[in-house]
Specification:
This protein has about 400 residues and is mainly alpha-helical. The protein has one domain (about 25-400). It has helices at about 1-20, 25-45, 60-65, 70-75, 75-95, 100-135, 140-150, 155-165, 165-170, 175-190, 200-215, 225-245, 265-280, 285-290, 295-305, 305-325, 340-365, 395-400, and strands at about 45-50, 55-60.
Length: about 400
C-alpha cells in the first residue's frame, strides 16, 4: 500500500512540474466537476427495471418528486458549454495569430471530439445486433440504445457551436436568451407547435457558450458580473418554477408533461446562468486547490480521458445491471422500481461498482482519445488550443477537442 502511495505521489509531482506555471488550472477543475456531475447524475436518476425479462428505463424523480434538488446539483451541462466557449474563443484567437486557417483549426478540434464516438457506436451496433439475434425483446434493446446514444446530442450541439465560434465569439448572451424566452412564450402561452421548442437546443446552450466567450474576452475579471448571474439566474428560475408552471427538475422525468432539458426551456437557461455565475465565482478557490500536486494530478488525468468517461459511463452502469441479472432479477437499487428511500440507499452502494466497470471501459477504450500520430514528412497540424494559451503536459481532451 505504501508503495502505491509513493508511486502516486511521484506521478503527481511529475504532472505538477510538467504543467506551465501560468496555466489557469481552474478551467480544468471546472470541466472535471462538470464531467463528474453528468456521470453521477445519470447513475443516480437513471434506473433499469426488470419486468418479465424486459429491461425498461425508469427514474426515481418520477416516483419521488422531492428529489428534484438532486438535479440542481448534478445537471452541470451549462458549465460544459461555459468552459467550451471560453476555450474555443481563446484557441481560435491563438490560431489566427499563428496564421492557422479556420478549416485546419476546426477540423482538428472536431476530429479529436468525434474519434472516441466511433468506438461507442461500433460496439453498440454489434451488441444490439447480437441481442436481437439472441432473442432479446426489442423494448430491451431500444432502452439500452437510448441510454447509450441519447447523451450524444451533447456532442452534436457542442460541435456545431464550436464550428460557429468565429460567428458567435462576440455575440451577447442576451440574444439567444431572448430566443429561448420567445420560443417558450409561443409554445406554452400562445399554443404554438411543440416542434418549435427544438430551436432552443441551439439557442439554449448558446447562452452559456457565449458567456464563456465573454469570459475569454475578460468580461468576468471582477466578481460583480458573476454575482449578478448567480443571483439573477437563481431568482428567475425560482419564479418560473413557483409561478410559471415549469417543473422543478432540471432533467427530464419520464411521464412529465414538460421537460426542462429536452428541449431546453427558459427555466433551464436561467438555471444555467446561475450555474455559470457560481462556476465563475469559485474559480479562485479552485485555482488555490489545484496548487496541491495530488489534487491537480487527479483533475489533469481525468481531463485527459474526459470523452472516454463521458461516452462509456452509461455502458458501465448497464453492464453491471446486466451481469446482476445472472444473480437475480430483483437486486435492490439495480433492478427494482426506484420508488423508495431504500432504493436510494441501495443505489448509493452500487456507485463504486459502476465506477469499477467504468475503469474497465476506460482501460479498454481510452486509446481512441489519443491524437493520431503525424505521418512522416507531413506538415504539423494546427496546434490545439489550450485554456489561457498555455501548453501543459497533461492536455485536457475537451481543450484539445
Amino acid at each position: 500500500m505504501r508503495e502505491v502511495r509513493d508511486r502516486w505521489a511521484a506521478l503527481a509531482e511529475r504532472v505538477d512540474r510538467a504543467t506551465p506555471a501560468g496555466r489557469d488550472r481552474s478551467v480544468d477543475a471546472l470541466r472535471a466537476l462538470a464531467i463528474l456531475g453528468v456521470v453521477l447524475g445519470h447513475w443516480l436518476v437513471t434506473a433499469l427495471t426488470a419486468d418479465d425479462g424486459t429491461l425498461r428505463g425508469a427514474s426515481p424523480l418520477a416516483y419521488m418528486p422531492w428529489l428534484a434538488p438532486v438535479s440542481w446539483v448534478f445537471q452541470t451541462l451549462a458549465v460544459f458549454f461555459l468552459v467550451g466557449g471560453h476555450v474555443a474563443v481563446r484557441g481560435y484567437a491563438s490560431a489566427r495569430t499563428r496564421g492557422v486557417a479556420y478549416g485546419a483549426w476546426v477540423g482538428q478540434r472536431l476530429g479529436r471530439l468525434f474519434r472516441p464516438v466511433a468506438a461507442v457506436i461500433a460496439l453498440w451496433a454489434v451488441v444490439a445486433a447480437g441481442l436481437l439475434l439472441g432473442g432479446a425483446e426489442w423494448d430491451t434493446v431500444r432502452t439500452l440504445l437510448t441510454l447509450v446514444w441519447s447523451p450524444l446530442w451533447f456532442l452534436l450541439v457542442f460541435a456545431a457551436l464550436t464550428a460557429a465560434t468565429p460567428l458567435v465569439a462576440r455575440l451577447s448572451p442576451v440574444w439567444p436568451l431572448a430566443v429561448v424566452a420567445g420560443v417558450d412564450a409561443w409554445r406554452f402561452g400562445f399554443g404554438g407547435p411543440q416542434w418549435i421548442g427544438w430551436v432552443n437546443v441551439a439557442a439554449g446552450w448558446l447562452v452559456p457558450y457565449t458567456l464563456g466567450a465573454a469570459w475569454a474576452r475578460g468580461a468576468f475579471a471582477r466578481r460583480r458580473p458573476a454575482l449578478l448571474l448567480l443571483g439573477g439566474g437563481a431568482a428567475v428560475t425560482a419564479a418560473l418554477v413557483l409561478w410559471g408552471g415549469y417543473p422543478a427538475s432540471m432533467v427530464g422525468v419520464p411521464g412529465a408533461a414538460i421537460s426542462n432539458l429536452n428541449p431546453p426551456t427558459l427555466a433551464a437557461a436561467s438555471f444555467g446562468l446561475a450555474q455559470c455565475g457560481l462556476a465563475l465565482l469559485v474559480r479562485g478557490p479552485l485555482a488555490r486547490a489545484m496548487r496541491r500536486p495530488r489534487t491537480w494530478a487527479k483533475v489533469a488525468l481525468l481531463n485527459l480521458s474526459a470523452m472516454t468517461v463521458f461516452l462509456w459511463h452509461q455502458t458501465s452502469m448497464m453492464a453491471v445491471t446486466a451481469l446482476g441479472l445472472l444473480v437475480s432479477t430483483d437486486l435492490p437499487g439495480l433492478h427494482t422500481v426506484p420508488g423508495s428511500a431504500g432504493w436510494i440507499a441501495a443505489r448509493l452502494l452500487w456507485l463504486p461498482v459502476f465506477a469499477a466497470a467504468l475503469a474497465v471501459c476506460w482501460a479498454a477504450f481510452r486509446v481512441h482519445e489519443r491524437p493520431r500520430p503525424r505521418a512522416a514528412g507531413r506538415a504539423p497540424a494546427a496546434e490545439a488550443p489550450r485554456p489561457s494559451g498555455h501548453r501543459p503536459a497533461p492536455d485536457p481532451v475537451i481543450t484539445r477537442a
